[in-house]
Design brief:
globular; Jelly Rolls; binds 2-oxoglutaric acid; 27% helix; 6-stranded antiparallel β-sheet
Amino acid sequence: MILNTEYPITAAQVAAYQRDGHILLDDVLPASHIPPYHDAMVRTVAERNTETRALKDRDTYGMAFLQTTNLWEYSEVVKEYVMAKRFARIAARLMGVERVRLYHDQALFKEAGGGITPWHQDQHYWPLATDKTITMWMTLADISADMGTLRFASGSHVEGYLGDIPISDESEAQLRAFVERKGFTLAQADMMRAGAATFHSGWTLHSAPPNFSNRMRPAMTVIYFADGARVSALDNKNRIGDRDRWLPGAEPGDPAASPLNPVLG
Ligand SMILES: O=C(O)CCC(=O)C(=O)O
């Protein structure tokens, strides 16, 4: 089955990912294979979503997307997708590691009229003592930039942890100013075909524009880290929450390897 097949990654692509902290790859899941996964994800998001407020009544984070986590725990079809060797091997190859584990998945559906995704660093949230973390962000429909393809600050991953700056109006102001001051080149796909994906490092600064269209931007993410990584200090409140949810029972210094974090490839 397609999810266990190899997606060839060249040495030039590995070098580009390691230099920029992100890369766009086409046909990570060829479009003809998407419908069953798309449908299972839409169904699971509908079942699990707890957001009922109108967009105008939410804060900036709430307007950015409907965020539904670990869909694989609730749908066998989504589980097949999240556990796919094909995606995990891309993650391992780009990071230059032998094997990766699953951290968690999340659907990030930016609604029609949804707001910006503020500038942020994912690894602010993750109690993982390694630089080898990566998110696959796949669109399940053809989308254009004005629906919210991700915008990356190329090379910003080398900065490492920039502090306790969770996704918010403050992160948008503070980190946008940082990106401008440092003069990072910005990269954003003008369009992405269904099944294309970006991969970005946990430290890479990124954001997204609003969804100006009248259609949902259905994005599915899977987050991986290098097998062998340990749990870091729980030095901000989001890392405590993430440890409780994604690394149950693990203490700082322990291997990051709970039953929710299988080796995938
Ligand atoms: O989907 C978005 O707008 C933001 C995605 C993101 O921040 C991520 O996947 O790390």
